Amino acid sequence: MPGLLHSTGSLRTPTEGQRCFHELTPPRAESEHSKWRQKIGDMIEAFFDASEQTYGYRRIHADLLDNGISIDDDTVRKIMRERGLTPCQPGPKRLVATIAADVGDLPDLVRRDFTAQAPGRKLCGDITYIKTWEGWLFLATVLDCFSKKVVGYAMSDRMTSDLVVAALDKAAENVPFIPKVTIFHSDRGSQYMSADFANCATMYGVKRSVGRTGVCYDNAWAESFNGTLKNECVNRKQYPTRERAIKDITRYIELRYNSRRRHSALDYSTPNRVESEWFSRNTAA
């Protein structure tokens, strides 16, 4: 027996034997769950890139459901975290708007209720500014509270009453105004308090509504759009010219915000879809 012990030079230690066993054993096939998770992860990444890195897990979840993928939102959140997919974050909110002195005694007909039962019934608007190497570009928008769609907008290098009039004119082309029913809500900026804008609203039969002086929450939906535009588009670019900025903002509004961006207030549908579905249901054959 002792001789046998001395003649075992070819035997392996337990550790060596285990290593040999693993080397001879073929690797386990990738589990079906791992394959599924990889495929879903690739889809999530594709939707994230399609959103230009702006969608969080809830909107990505809605995209997946819309494409027939049954998955819970918590799993989407975990996969996004694993892959380092973090949407761009908004900057600090502007709490106080730059306003003119009070003009007249216009009422607040909205009272922070930015919902509506049909297109063209309740609108809100605001002006924001975009920095370019040539100087400031000003954007006036009109949003429909029903569909959350930007139904009118205008851009200029001057922040005048003509700018807000042009935006309202554009909105009138895109949604039905009902005289003495349609409401347009804004802050008390001098452009919205001007005689030119008052005359334009009167021509369309639009009732004017304004928030309180210096309280931006009274026009929160318009403020929210401006923040989204800056976060998802403007603040991620540099514009050598105003013309470049105009093209990029137009692209964002028409091809992304109205057409593809999902809104939590619309149960994660898009403005164009919500508007189109309403007209399909309510237009006589």
From TrEMBL:
It holds the Pfam family rve. GO terms for biological process: DNA integration. SUPFAM superfamilies: Ribonuclease H-like. Residues 115-279 form the Integrase catalytic domain. InterPro entries: HTH-like_dom, Integrase_cat-core, RNaseH-like_sf, RNaseH_sf, Transpos_IS3, Transposase_IS3/IS150/IS904. It comes from the Bacteria. One of its GO terms (molecular function) is nucleic acid binding. Involved in the transposition of the insertion sequence. NCBIfam families: transpos_IS3. This is Integrase catalytic domain-containing protein. It comes from Gordonia phthalatica.
